[in-house]
Amino acid sequence: MIRHTVLFKWAADATDEQKKAAATEVATLPSTVPSIRAFALGPDAGFAEQNFDFAVTADFDDDAGYFAYRDDPGHREIVRRYITPIVAQRAAVQYEF
């Protein structure tokens, strides 16, 4: 299994509406990308000031499933329309588990 985790720090001028729209759109991915086996997302709980603002974790059977997700046109469009305009910083990792 491959786990993909991505963290976002939102731009200072990102509005609450933009953040909510990004979360809403990203949450649709499990219904449109067949290779996703498990999926979780959410805002930071606020326990540490230096944390990122938002996280997404997705599990796949194998690397082919991850690449299918990464390159999925719907996924790419969500990133382009809802994430890129408001993201200040991004960190990601993929690992076997």
Give a brief outline of the structure.
The protein has 97 residues and is of the alpha+beta class. The protein has helices spanning 16-26, 29-32, 63-71, 73-83, and strands at residues 2-10, 36-43, 54-60, 87-96.
Give an account of the 3D structure.
This protein is of the alpha+beta class. Helix 1 packs antiparallel against helix 4. The model has no long low-confidence stretch (mean pLDDT 98). The protein has helices at 16-26, 29-32, 63-71, 73-83; strands at 2-10, 36-43, 54-60, 87-96. Strands 2-3-1-4 form a four-stranded antiparallel sheet. 14% of the residues are buried. It has four helices and four strands; from the N terminus they run E-H-H-E-E-H-H-E.
What percent of residues adopt helix (DSSP H or I)?
Answer: 25-40%
Strand order of the largest sheet: 2-3-1-4
Strand-pairing-aware structural class = alpha+beta
In terms of quaternary structure, what is this? single chain
Order of helices and strands: EHHEEHHE
Distance between the termini: 6 Å
| Strand proportion | 35-45%
What does the overall shape look like? Answer: globular
Tell me the number of strands: 4
Please state the CA-atom Rg, rounded to the nearest Å. Answer: 13 Å
* Average of the residue pLDDT scores: 98
Described by strand count, sense and barrel closure, the largest sheet is: 4 strands, antiparallel
- Uncertain spans: none
Count of alpha/pi helices: 4
Please outline the helices and strands.
Layout: E1 2-10, H1 16-26, H2 29-32, E2 36-43, E3 54-60, H3 63-71, H4 73-83, E4 87-96
Antiparallel strand pairs: 1-3, 1-4, 2-3
